[in-house]
């Protein structure tokens, strides 16, 4: 054990709107001289028809958000079964205005504003609508079509009415995720006015965090995680990171997700990648990259970078970003090639557009629908897990997608986990003042208020 380095930290992560770890306390020991060789093993699929999974660590339990299930004792069960407190608590969601995205929840006898990121409130429901809002210091911040807004948060809302909100800034585009930082909340804009900004929100004030990167392209801000006292923000289309330090300065980093020869670049050199998921844990920055469904491990202790791809198909090559040849499905639909299938109900197209009813991403009419994503990354005691997904949650239909086999389609919407030796995590919510103690002998032990809350034996490497 002479070469072991031990460390403790709080893990927070947001992967494309989904907070996957919320200030969960980890402690680990490892030998940085030895390469990290993670063994990603696929666990049971939460749903046979799910082609895009999204996971989170909720109070130490692996949650799949889209199917609303929890992974307990090797099987998937409903959230209400995993957390009985939820079973007898009526949950009601209300939108904020006609186009708004903020919801309120009825939980037992009280109503509180709740968003997916709120580990401060023991609710446990994971709706999709408000998943890019944040709670901070008595306020809820969120983005809708009008712009950045803030709503006051009080413990009890009258008759469960939606919160009243004030507009902070108009025309900010869309936001992907957000995280508490710098005494407020950081929300990232999406491809607005040529170069989207990050926004720091405090109370009723908003500050734009402007920066430039080496590629001078428009950005979208997909993933957020803390690392060594800094905030890392994962970007599209470079797939690289911006680092915001405690002094408010940004630096642009290409070394955490280095490019490969088979990464597509446009004629002007622009990359086409998304750092869609990220979590810093175990002395490693884990990044989930689109469009090839890869996880990059940047070992901050040893300065090594490696990657694993969670798909075996198709061959990785320089194509933008369309991994499968779709045979121009949209044009074939226009030509009537699928009229008989549609009449027979084998193909159901449900959204009117251009004279046809279809949902382009859902039905995979464009090649990009089958680009490969690592949608979310989450850390648990002794392991890290990753969820895969298609571009838009595409539903596989062999009559349409005959360029892909059923077995290949089944690789979308899966979950993989890898062991983190000598790692333990306390995942319950810490509120108030507690006495925390770490001990390392033959095991790593976390004690809180004199009670052991997490313990992991130290194993040989």
Q: Please work out how many helical segments DSSP would assign.
A: 4
Structural class: mainly beta
Summarize model confidence as the mean pLDDT: 77
- Please outline the major beta sheet: 7 strands, antiparallel
How far do the termini sit from each other? Answer: 10 Å
Radius of gyration: 22 Å
Total strands: 34
In percent, how much strand structure appears in the residues? 35-45%
Low-confidence stretches: 87-131, 353-357
**Envelope shape:** globular
Q: State the helical fraction.
A: under 10%
As laid out across the biggest beta sheet, the strand order is 21-20-19-18-1-2-31
Assembly type: single chain
Output the keywords:
4-stranded antiparallel sheet; 461 residues; 7-stranded antiparallel sheet; 4 helices; mainly beta; 4% helix; 34 strands
Word description of this protein:
- This protein is mainly beta and 461 residues long.
- It contains four helices and 34 strands.
- The protein has helices at 79-82, 329-334, 339-343, 406-409; strands spanning 5-15, 18-30, 41-42, 55-58, 61-64, 69-72, 75-78, 104-107, 110-113, 134-136, 139-144, 147-152, 166-170, 174-181, 184-190, 198-202, 205-209, 220-227, 230-236, 241-244, 250-253, 274-281, 284-290, 294-299, 304-309, 352-353, 356-357, 373-380, 383-389, 415-419, 423-426, 436-440, 443-448, 451-457.
- The chain has a seven-stranded antiparallel sheet with strand order 21-20-19-18-1-2-31, with no helix packed on it. A four-stranded antiparallel sheet has the order 3-30-29-28, with no helix packed on it. It has a four-stranded antiparallel sheet with strand order 4-5-6-7.
- The protein is globular.
- Residues 87-131 and 353-357 have low confidence and may be disordered.
């Amino acid at each position: 054990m002479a070469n072991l380095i031990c460390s403790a930290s709080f893990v927070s992560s947001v992967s494309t709107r989904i907070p996957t770890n919320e200030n969960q306390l980890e402690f680990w020991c490892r030998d940085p001289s030895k390469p990290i060789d993670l063994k990603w093993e696929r666990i049971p699929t939460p749903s046979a028809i799910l082609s895009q999974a999204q996971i989170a660590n909720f109070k130490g339990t692996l949650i799949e958000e889209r199917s609303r299930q929890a992974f307990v004792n090797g099987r998937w069960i409903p959230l209400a079964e995993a957390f009985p407190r939820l079973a007898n608590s009526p949950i009601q969601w209300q939108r904020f205005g006609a186009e708004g995205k903020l919801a309120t929840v009825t939980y037992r006898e009280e109503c509180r504003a709740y968003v997916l990121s709120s580990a401060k409130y023991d609710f446990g429901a994971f709706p999709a609508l408000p998943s890019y809002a944040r709670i901070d210091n008595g306020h809820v911040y969120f983005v809708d079509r009008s712009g950045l807004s803030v709503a006051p948060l009080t413990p009890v809302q009258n008759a469960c009415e939606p919160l009243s909100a004030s507009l902070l800034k108009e025309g900010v585009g869309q936001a992907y995720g957000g995280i508490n930082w710098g005494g407020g909340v950081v929300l990232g804009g999406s491809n607005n006015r040529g170069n989207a900004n990050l926004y720091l929100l405090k109370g009723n004030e908003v500050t734009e965090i402007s920066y430039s990167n080496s590629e001078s392209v428009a950005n979208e801000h997909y993933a957020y995680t803390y690392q060594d006292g800094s905030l890392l923000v994962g970007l599209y289309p470079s797939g690289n990171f911006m680092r915001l330090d405690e002094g408010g300065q940004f630096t642009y980093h290409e070394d955490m997700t280095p490019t490969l020869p088979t990464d597509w670049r446009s004629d002007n050199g622009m990359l086409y990648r998304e750092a869609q998921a990220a979590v810093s844990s175990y002395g490693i920055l884990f990044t989930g990259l689109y469009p090839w469904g890869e996880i990059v491990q940047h070992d901050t202790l040893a300065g090594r970078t490696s990657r694993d791809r969670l798909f075996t198909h198709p061959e990785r090559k320089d194509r933008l970003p369309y991994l499968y040849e779709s045979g121009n499905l949209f044009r074939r639909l226009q030509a009537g090639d699928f009229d008989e299938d549609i009449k027979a109900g084998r193909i159901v197209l449900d959204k009117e557009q251009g004279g046809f009813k279809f949902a382009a991403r859902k039905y995979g009419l464009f090649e990009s629908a089958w680009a490969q994503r690592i949608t979310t990354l989450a850390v648990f005691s002794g392991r890290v897990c990753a969820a895969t997904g298609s571009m838009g949650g595409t539903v596989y239909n062999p009559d349409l997608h005959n360029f892909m086999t059923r077995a290949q389609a089944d690789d979308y919407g899966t979950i993989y986990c890898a062991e983190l030796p000598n790692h333990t995590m306390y995942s319950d919510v810490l509120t108030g003042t507690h006495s925390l103690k770490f001990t390392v002998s033959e095991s790593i032990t976390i004690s809180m208020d004199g009670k052991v809350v997490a313990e992991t034996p130290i194993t040989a490497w």
